[in-house]
Description:
Blueprint: H1 6-9, E1 13-18, H2 46-56, E2 61-66, H3 70-79, E3 85-90, H4 96-105, E4 115-119, E5 122-125, H5 128-137, E6 142-147, E7 155-158, E8 164-168, E9 177-184, H6 202-208, E10 212-216, E11 222-225, H7 229-241
Parallel strand pairs: 1-2, 1-4, 2-3, 6-10
Antiparallel strand pairs: 4-9, 5-11, 6-9, 7-8
Amino acid sequence: MTDPSAASRRPVQAVVLAGGQGSRLRPYTDDRPKPMVEIPGTGTPIIGHQLAWLAEEGVTDVVVSCGHLAEVLQKWLESADLPLSVTTVVETEPLGRGGGLKYAAAHLPHPDRPWYATNGDIWTRFSLRDMADFHAERDAVATLALARPRLPWGAVQTDGFGHITDFIEAPPSTFEINAGVYVFSSGFAAMLPERGDHERTTFPRLARERRLAGFPIPQGSYWRAIDTAKDLTEAARELAALGGR
């Protein structure tokens, strides 16, 4: 049974990291930042779907960290009918992933409360509320969502004698990966570097101290990182099969 006080510990604020150049998505990113790229058939840029999802999960305030072609993203955010309050910040000089996250977190409205964060190129749907409860139950400082992506190649199954028994198209990976969605306790921002990559500094230290948790995205939930034009095509096909959710 869920702790009745769990709702009070769930984040109502989030950071979206939207500053990458998206060079692997060119030419789509020649005139817009990566999160502004639209998945064919949806009519909405990636970040629009992210903000809708965050609002559905109880988030009321979002800080969007901008970089490449920031003005394009800011103009869209100003004109869009959004379901929550959005503030944008722009790095005046490159701070690295950890420094950028720290800079954005400094603009959250509730510094004494936990917060979500997500990379701006992630398309997913699962319960952030469940992830927040998982985070609180483990008394973690940071919790990463874990995905098991499908491999881009076909796989071959063999028996003990070396005979091929089956071919499997795009099988799921045997390893879980960082899915680019996070829950952070209020004190996490102070642990981030002013410059540099938190995944090489803060995360390894928290892992050694057993204060870093991993939340497996539930089986059947949708997740995809949009890195290339092929990802756009495949996401459009997958979402059509799922009814556009």
